[in-house]
Amino acid sequence: MKGEGKRNSKCLAYVAAFIVFQTIIILVFALTVMKIKSPKVRFGAVAVENFTPSTTNSSSFDMRLVAQVAIKNTNFGHFKYDSSNITILYGGMPVGEAVIAEGRTKARKTQRFDVTVDITSDKLSGNTNLTNDIGSGYLRLSSQAKLSGKVQLMKVIKKKKSGEMSCTMTVNLAQRAIQDLKCN
Questions:
Q1: pLDDT tens string 110-132
Q2: From the CB of residue 109, how many other CB atoms can be counted at a distance below 10 Å?
Q3: C-alpha Rg value of the chain to the nearest Å
Q4: Where are the alpha helices (DSSP H) in 126-165?
Q5: What is the pTM of this model?
Q6: Rounded CA separation 57/72 (Å)
Q7: What is the 3-state secondary structure (H, E, C) of 43-99?
């Protein structure tokens, strides 16, 4: 009888240790894998494909930018996003727009693709800053985009998330190149 009581208490201790161990594993899993974050949307490289100043008006231009967009998904599930727009702004006013088609970024991967944006200053009428900027040879632009979609974990859990992009860049008109590209 004495040996049997020791064996039962030993077995009970093993069961309790196993339960504590499983609780710790589940807690770590819930705090790391199950934590769903918003994806990051950024410009990679941006190139000026062509720049055409207006011959009749010194304060207007047409330009084409080819930008590499990177969507970084740090989650353990894929991010499926709806179609969206990238807007290029000068002085807070839109001068160009491009469409991002709907798609999917795999778990813990970065998806990269190119987007072409046609920019025209026709929408800006009588902007003296634009005339000064074109005269100086440097044009300061900003960009905005928002990708909305769902992150799906283990084909069971779906959570709505969105990634936002806000970038500033300076276009060197003489070299037809982008300088000082900064994204938040």
A1: 999 999 999 998 877 767 788 88
A2: 13
A3: 27
A4: 128-136
A5: 0.83
A6: 42
A7: EEEEEEEEEEECCCCCCCEEEEEEEEEEEECCCCCEEEECCEEEEEEECCEEEEEEE
